[in-house]
UniProtKB/TrEMBL annotation, chain A:
Part of the binding-protein-dependent transport system for D-xylose. Probably responsible for the translocation of the substrate across the membrane. CDD domains: TM_PBP1_transp_AraH_like (cd06579). It is found in: Cell membrane. This is Xylose transport system permease protein XylH. Keywords: Cell inner membrane, Cell membrane, Membrane, Sugar transport, Transmembrane, Transmembrane helix, Transport. It is a multi-pass membrane protein. GO terms for cellular component: plasma membrane. The chain crosses the membrane at residues 43-60, 72-94, 100-118, 130-153, 173-195, 202-222, 242-262, 283-303, 315-334, 365-386, 398-416, 423-440, 446-464. GO terms for molecular function: transmembrane transporter activity. InterPro entries: ABC_transp_permease (IPR001851).
TrEMBL record, chain B:
PANTHER family: CARBOHYDRATE TRANSPORT ATP-BINDING PROTEIN MG119-RELATED (PTHR43790), SUGAR ABC TRANSPORTER ATP-BINDING PROTEIN (PTHR43790:SF8). Keywords: ATP-binding, Nucleotide-binding. The keyword rRNA-binding does not apply. It holds the Pfam family ABC_tran. The keyword Nucleotide-binding applies. Residues 6-243 form the ABC transporter domain. This is Sugar ABC transporter ATP-binding protein. Gene3D superfamilies: P-loop containing nucleotide triphosphate hydrolases. It comes from the Bacteria. One of its GO terms (molecular function) is ATP hydrolysis activity.
Length: 472, 257
């Protein structure tokens, strides 16, 4: 390129050099680009989707019960808890950090919720004086940590936990769920502060907290005890109830209509402004597919699926709108806000983000706050599914399944790469393995081995695609 | 010769017992490329980081457009219109070109991003710099070549109506053709009226684009001269010995008399 050429070219001409941006591509070109992208190592959630398809086909041929309506609805309810915890974890994983304590932290939140319900709102009586005061001190510390880092939402929610504990609000399902979320938030403030301000590696901090919160749950519930919550209609219905038929269709209209409106308005506004855009036909096909699938799903779930003719079970499970709301809010935050952009930037190159003026410690702390808060929501669903909270709540495989769900879906443990829908897809894979092998009367050993193998496969795909991307 | 836009007076900086910068006086003029040269460890990068607000200074004054200013962080420097393109690029591999160019200063209302606005602005900036090697502004940085990355990093610095751009060894890791592109870009920045500081080890690059040459020797400013008044050899002597004939730091015996 010579100087004369540059000077001769008017500015408009220079802009059109980004021709690939300014004109929309044809469908074949778009497909070609996609294939090139996949070959280049950017797989996204493609392997997980393929895996999902293979698993569904496999179990559908092996078990008659697998594709029955009752089982599919059951799958949603079984998988939702893990999926929600995994969505929170995606934020932490995006920074290349890990939160091993999300499981037991969510267990603490669930225990507090159940304790509030069982003890009639008197937390002091429920926890014993010493534990009660220690909890208040810990929450106060969490508030101080959040204020120091200027994470006001975290401080407010943590203060909410203290307020609910101190005020002795009479038992009410909504207050109890709020308490669980507030407790989760307070725990996240502490974890995040220790990682980002004190500077302890997240692995160590959350390993220590994983053990600690496990002990706290045991202390709150007592050895061998359980706190039943199935007698409260609202708490029990979170994971076991269904929307009425009309509300199911209302959900379909809001969700599918909202999706269509957002995708199409964005697409045509990009076209109008001459920005890089998918071909219209492809966008329309995508939207139509989603709407048709959602309509079919809604229709099938509003059919009576009770195995027993004397009762009626129909409607979309409550967990579906819960997951959808979290997914929509979370995806908007990650993709459309400054905060989300900064999360990706810190995960990609923390030093570059710092030099660009991003408050890296604050971002680092905030993801732990989000993770624990969302995990608390997940624990509400998990507790509701079982109908009680036991000392083992949130322990065992809960956290590892959630991390597994995020990774299987395509979230990278190296940070900077991943989306919330990965957690949903990965969570579906894990739920299907557990459910399908259960239907095939396989023992727990086989379930663990298969889940482990799938996770290993997902991690290998991530590592290999990274290698490929580095080579190309 | 125009008035300096950025002027440093008597800057000192120590890291613990190591005195890295001694009474540095340095100025940047709009529309000119000032090359900052010196051997490894002479303090070039430290000086740039002090200007950018990454490091604080121990003493000395910074004048920006004849006003004394205090730069306490990257944001302060950016607010004044001082941009730095670092040796290690400081781009996020997982973000695309637009996202990188607007990192830390995203446009939009109430926390929501205005992608369309940013994309158009990024494209306009790249076009105004006659950057044509980048196919799409939505390409992830991870798939760009070294020269393209450098181009993006430099374009990022001019997006902000910035007045001073500091380039830390922009051509160090580049091939011949890519070096060519980046040097053209550097010249174009000066033509647009920016004050450009170019740190480089490569004398050919320096003589090709620089209007003035400032030479650091062991943390002291040995000389600051118009590029046309010195020869290649003199600059090398200034870099390696701190003086060349009458130029540079006075001989110790001369100083004692």
């Amino acid at each position: 390129m010579t100087d004369t050429n540059e000077k001769a070219a008017p500015q408009e001409g220079a802009i059109s050099d980004f021709g690939i941006d300014t004109t929309s591509r044809s469908t074949t070109e778009a497909l070609k680009d996609y294939v090139a992208k996949v070959r280049g190592g950017d797989l996204g959630s493609l392997p997980a989707l393929l895996g999902l398809l293979v698993l569904v086909l496999f179990f559908a041929t092996q078990s008659d019960a697998f594709l029955t309506l009752a089982n599919v609805a059951n799958l949603f309810q079984q998988g939702a808890g893990i999926v929600i915890i995994a969505m929170g974890l995606v934020f932490v994983l995006l920074l290349g950090e890990i939160d091993l304590s999300a499981g037991t932290a969510s267990g603490v939140a669930a225990s507090m919720m159940a304790l509030h319900y069982v003890r009639g709102g008197n937390m002091m009586l429920g926890m014993g004086d010493t534990v009660f005061y220690i909890f208040l001190v810990v929450i106060a510390l969490a508030i101080v940590a959040a204020v120091l880092m200027r994470i006001w939402a975290g401080a407010v929610l943590a203060a909410g936990a203290a307020a609910i504990m101190l005020l002795g609000v009479p038992p009410n399902a909504w207050v109890e769920m709020l308490l669980a979320v507030c407790i989760g938030c307070a725990i996240g403030c502490l974890t995040g502060f220790l990682v980002s301000r004190v500077g302890i590696p997240s692995f160590v901090v959350t390993l220590a907290l994983f053990l600690m919160w496990g002990g706290v749950i045991l202390k709150l519930i007592g050895q061998g005890g359980t706190l039943p919550i199935r007698n409260d209609e609202v708490l029990f219905k979170v994971a076991n109830g269904n929307l009425s038929t009309s509300l199911s269709w209302a959900l379909f209209i809001v969700a599918a209509g909202g999706y269509t409106a957002v995708v199409l308005s964005r697409h045509f506004s990009r076209l109008r402004k001459g920005l890089v855009a998918q071909p219209t036909s492809l966008v329309l096909i995508k939207v139509a597919a989603v709407v048709v699938l959602a309509a079919a799903g809604t229709y099938l779930l509003t059919l009576n699926r009770a195995p027993n003719p004397t009762i009626v079970i129909e409607g979309v499970p409550y967990v579906v709108p819960i997951v959808l709301v979290l997914l929509t809010v979370g995806t908007t935050v990650l993709d459309r806000t400054k905060y989300g952009r900064h999360v990706y930037a810190v995960g990609g190159n923390a030093e570059a983000a710092r030099r660009a003026g991003v408050n890296v410690p604050k971002i680092r702390m905030s993801v732990f706050v989000i993770c624990s808060t969302v995990a608390a929501v997940g624990s509400i669903v998990l507790a509701s599914k079982v109908g009680s909270v036991a000392p083992s709540s949130g322990g065992g495989n809960t956290l590892l399944f959630a991390v597994g769900a995020a990774v299987i879906g395509g979230t990278s443990l190296f940070g900077g790469k991943g989306r919330l829908r990965d957690a949903v897809i990965g969570g579906a894979v894990i739920a299907i393995i557990e459910n399908g092998l259960g239907l095939l009367k396989q023992e727990a050993a086989v379930v663990s081995i298969v889940t482990g193998l799938v996770l290993l496969l997902a991690a290998s795909v991530d590592a290999l695609s990274r290698k490929r991307a580095a080579v190309s | 010769m125009s008035e300096p836009i950025l002027e440093l007076r008597g800057i000192n900086k120590s890291f613990g017992p190591v005195h890295v910068l001694h009474d540095i006086d340095f100025s940047v003029r709009p529309g000119e490329v000032t090359a900052l040269v010196g051997d490894n460890g002479a303090g070039k990068s430290t000086l740039v980081k002090c200007i950018a607000g990454i490091h604080g200074t121990d003493s000395g004054e910074v004048l920006f457009e004849d006003q004394p200013v205090n730069i306490h962080g990257p944001r302060d420097a950016a607010a004044l219109g001082i941009e730095v393109v670092y040796q290690d690029l400081a781009l996020c591999d997982n973000l695309d070109i637009v996202q990188n160019m607007f990192l830390g200063r995203e446009r939009g209302k109430a926390g929501l991003l205005d992608e369309a606005d940013m994309e158009q602005a990024a494209r306009k900036t790249l076009a105004s710099l006659s950057v044509r090697t980048v196919k799409s502004v939505r390409t992830p940085v991870s798939s760009l070549s070294g020269g393209q990355r450098q181009t993006v990093a430099i374009a990022k610095s001019v997006l902000w109506d910035s007045k001073v751009v500091l380039l830390d060894e922009p051509t160090a890791a580049l091939g011949v053709a890519q070096t060519r592109q980046v040097l053209d870009l550097v010249r174009r920045l000066a033509e647009q009226g920016l004050g450009v500081v170019l740190i480089s080890h490569n004398m050919n690059d320096v003589f090709e684009v620089a209007d003035r040459i400032a030479c650091l020797y062991l943390g002291r400013l040995a000389a600051e001269l118009p590029a046309k008044d010195v020869t290649h050899g003199q600059v090398v002597e200034l870099i390696t010995a701190g003086r060349s004939g009458d130029l540079g730091i006075a001989r110790p015996e001369a100083a004692t008399i």
